[in-house]
Amino acid sequence: MNYPEKIIISEVGPRDGLQSIDTIMSTEHKLEWIRSEFEAGITEIEVGSFVPKSILPQMADAYEVVRKAKKIDGLTVVALVPNFIGAKNAIEAGADKICLPLSVSETHSKANLNKTHDQVLDEIRNIALYLSEIEGEKPDFEGNLSTAFGCTLEGAVSESIVLRLGSRMMELGCQEIGLSDTTGYANPMQIKKMIRSLKKEVGNENLNSVHLHNTRGLGLANVLAAMEEGITTIDSSLGGIGGCPFAPGASGNIVTEDLVFMLDSMGIETGVDINALLAVTEKVQSFIPNESVYGFTKDSGLPKGYSKGWGI
Ligand SMILES: [Zn+2]
Fold it and tell me: Which of 91, 231, 248, 259 has the fewest beta carbons under 10 Å from its own?
């Protein structure tokens, strides 16, 4: 099987992980986490979400976190934006990339963002227009298809809606599309089929990333399936932060350390020093002592005599 030689791991813990736990991490600790993970070799980090403080107090310092993270030379600073106002603030703070999620399940979109598909598409249109008027440096704009493999409210979602919304986002001015299994419903066959169809719809070069949850334990299997279809950027969360306390590692994002271990042991380039990364996990755990931090590699340690491309 042919896999890409190099994978970009996009760390989403400071956003997806921290927004899912009750503890509010201080700005200082968030930056220490981001800096340490960058030093361990992670070059892309989603550092926050520009949602109103009243909705997600954990993300209230997103502006400051983006501003300060931008000082780390070589780091791609990603911000999630739910709407035009959020995007304007993220752009002003200096984000390198902004991602706007559009829930393929309209029921989910209405329940979470209080917006219909058309209303979210309007926000995308306004953001793209605003970006087109900025001269000089400006962030990349990614449209993210969330709940693309099923929704906890609607159940199955149809592939044709995923394709239609993906192509609409490109028409409105997104530069690329990301595919998210927000609910952890996807299986490897479904991942492969969806990526193939969506690449055909939006152009091979415009779909490069996936965001997977490990809710039913299929996270890393889905990563391999996505890589077989040419995906080169994978989202993951350090320590699987945000997972469900009643089912360890279950509902959170795939675990960065386990993802790095899989790729590194397969001889695939990630740029990450796994020992340094495991030290970052310990540091981050000390910042949130009352929250659970997961990971098979963290719990079991590296195999005896381990080195990159070990055993192949
Ligand atoms: Zn997620």
Answer: 248
**Which domains, and CATH codes, for the chain?**
8-300 (3.20.20.70)
Q: What are phi and psi of 176, to 5 degrees?
A: -155, 170
Beta strands at 233-236 and 8-11: parallel, antiparallel or unpaired: parallel
Q: What is the DSSP letter of 26?
A: P
Indicate the Cα dihedral angle 144, 114, 215, 189, nearest 10°. -50
Quote the ligand 1 centre to 135 CA distance (angstroms).
Answer: 32
Q: DSSP secondary-structure letter at 139?
A: -
The residues carrying an active-site annotation are: 244
Please give the distance, rounded to the nearest whole angstrom, from the Cα atom of residue 99 to the centre of ligand 1. Answer: 12
Q: Which residues have CB under 8 Å from 63's CB, separation 6+?
A: 50, 89, 90, 92, 93
pLDDT at 242: 77
Q: What's the sign of the alpha-carbon dihedral 281, 282, 288, 291?
A: positive
Does residue 113 have a pLDDT over 50? yes
Q: Is the distance from CB of 269 to CB of 285 less than 8 angstroms?
A: no
CA of 310 to the centre of ligand 1 (A): 30
Neighbours of 241 (CB within 10 A): 30
**Which of helix, strand or coil describes residue 269?**
strand
Distance CA 281, CA 294 (A): 9
pTM above 0.90, yes or no: yes
